[in-house]
Amino acid sequence: MNKKSKVVSYNKWGYIFLIPFTVIFLIFQLVPLATTIYNSFFENYRSGLTQIGPNFVGLQNYGTIIANGDLPTYFINTMIMWLMGFIPQILLSLLLGAWFTDPSLRLKCQTFFKTVIYLPNLIMASAFAMLFFTLFSDSGPINSMLMQIGVFKEAYQFMSHVWTVRTLVATMNCLMWFGNTTILLMAGMLGIDPSLFEAAQVDGATSTQIFYKITLPLLKPILIFVMITSLIGGLQMFDVPQILTNGTGDPMRSSMTLIMYLNKHLFSKNYGLAGALSVFLFIITGILSLIVFKFTNSEKVK
Amino acid sequence: MDLAANTTIAGKQDTGASVHVRRVVSYVVLILISFLCLFWFYVLFINATRSNSELSLGFTPVPSTHFVENWTNLKNGTLPIFNGLLNSLIIAILTAGLATYFSAMTAYAIHAYDFKLKKLMFTFILAIMMIPTQVTVLGFLQLIGKMGLDNNAAALIVPAIASPAVFFYMKQYMDSTLPLSLVEAARIDGSGEFRTFNQIVVPLMKPAIAVQAIFSFVNSWNNYFTPALVLHDDTKKTLPILIAQLRSADWLKFDMGQVYMMIAFSIFPVIVVYLILSKHIVGGVTLGGVKG
User: Fold this and answer.
1) Of the candidates B160, B174, B76, B81, the residue with the CA atom closest to the CA atom of residue B122
2) Which residues of B touch A16 (CB under 8 A)?
3) Does the residue A41 lie in any domain?
């Protein structure tokens, strides 16, 4: 009897230890989420020196960002740049992961290679983008190298062409994230029961067959997880294109992402449109998060 | 070992020669990829050692002698780099400290105690883990404006107490390494719950705390979006904001040697620290499982 009441009195500490997290979460995340949604229903911006609103306008803000084409355009931009970076990233990661974990290859210097490929992930994205901007500028070292080799007669304007800017953004994202993905996929590959590989080898399967018939299917859950988390990260794409194009998304706003657009409205204090955009992003990332959540939760149960 | 032996016996099609070819191919590709990862930083280093006039002549792969000169010019220039460095350091250190300590505490609450809302809390934290901060930043800015925290680094530091991703890592680490018998033993010895957490649990969690402290530090160090919206005074700005300022300035008129030096100044310290700690960092990624 006495012992039991003691157990109960210990367990109240569970609540006590949860207080800091809960309080900070409520204040700095839940309240802002509620006010963000609230803001999306109001007209609230500055036109010159006069402050318009806040006036309740219902769903008008949502209508505006969809009808004037901003939201669809920037959403497509974001997705194009994400895909251009993600496809090479996942292929490269699968290849490297398969090599690193292949026992018949017995690659040396694995630690060195892993250290090198993970390195770009820790670099300040804004500094990395600034670096690419200076390297690929008209009078920058890449142009001078290409002219020395004789690829171009005169400097190529990387920053004035839609697809070169997008390619630069995608390249940076790919470089920054493929090391991380490789390490995650490797963990998945090492988690596969080795007896499956042995059985396949005894049956005379080649390593290509083993990769397609055993590794890849068993890796599917982790691949889905990597893809969705990367998609959530891709929707947040900001630092690289923002610094590379100085916030303009040029040429012709073709590299303007959703968060750059949000950032623009936050700076100009157009809270109505910024709110509608945030809610839109919240819904998409919320759905994607739910899928990830299902994944992590089922992993837990296992 | 076993597997390798099997390969040689059973894998008759996978002859030694074909393995050899594949090994050569993979080394060549790995070296190419490593080159692609390091090339940019090599150019950055070379260009940081060259003067503006040398830079305008085109690229050479050999370093020049103006490293110290570029550094002095940058130091005495208009960008408040030491302020920026100090601000970035303070914010990143405090963020890492708060995020790891309180996430360990939250994880301990759910790991060690049984209470009614336990399951609900855990599910809830997992569910919100992936929601990006950007979607609530509008409300966040209005809130800190009302609280008088606008233009104040505290607005960037304090929210780190609730870091769901760090919590998740700590919880997983506890599940695999923290035996509750130790906690019971401490109780029998008369240690209070709070003291048990600080003096027994936290030291046991050191490896996990170290890994997460590194990641939180780096995330905060590299963060540009929120600080740029919160901090307005030149003396309060962090390094990423200064980089953005450099970008939006009329950079063609700048001494390019200084521009490269500024980029090097924000990148190379992280590279050096990374090379020292790389073993823990690369190992920590897999353990984390989930990282934004």
Assistant:
1) B174
2) 109, 193
3) no
- A141 upstream amide cis, omega within 30 of 0: no
Q: Which residues 125-184 of B have a C-beta within 8 angstroms of A?
A: 125-143, 158-159, 161-162, 167-168
- Superfamily holding B79-248: MetI-like (1.10.3720.10)
Nearest Cα of chain A lies from the Cα of B161 at a distance, in angstroms, of 6
In this prediction, residue B288 carries a pLDDT of: 52
Residue A19 lies in a domain: no
CATH number for the domain spanning A140: value is: 1.10.3720.10
* Full 3-state SS string of A21-82: HHHHHHHHHHHHHHHHHHHCCEEEEEECCEEEEEEECCCHHHHHHHHCCHHHHHHHHHHHHH
Domain boundaries, chain B: 2-66, 79-248
The predicted complex's ipTM stands at 0.86
Domain span at residue A163? 70-301
Number of domains in chain A: 1
pLDDT tens-digit profile of A184-239? Answer: 898 888 888 888 888 988 898 888 888 888 888 888 888 888 898 899 999 999 99
Contact (CB, 8 A) for A125 and B224: yes
pLDDT number for residue B286: 66
Q: Is residue A271 in some structural domain?
A: yes
Q: Which of residues 63-102 of A touch B (CB under 8 A)?
A: 92, 95-96, 99
Decide if A18 is inside a domain.
no
pLDDT of residue B35: 95
CB contact under 8 A, B289 and A119: no
The tokens for A154 are 């005169």
Give pLDDT tens digits for A250-286: 888 899 999 999 999 998 888 999 999 999 999 999 8
- Distances in Å between the Cα of A167 and the Cα atoms of A159, A228, B157 are 11, 22, 35
Q: Distances from the Cα of A272 to the Cαs of A247, A253, B290, in angstroms?
A: 21, 22, 33
Q: How confident is the model at residue A55 (pLDDT cuts 50, 70, 90)?
A: confident
Per-residue pLDDT band at B9 (split at 50, 70, 90)? very low
Give the distance from residue A186's alpha carbon to the nearest chain B alpha carbon, in angstroms: 9
| Calpha distance A187→A190 (Å, rounded) | 5
Other CB atoms closer than 10 Å to residue B247's CB: what's the count? 20
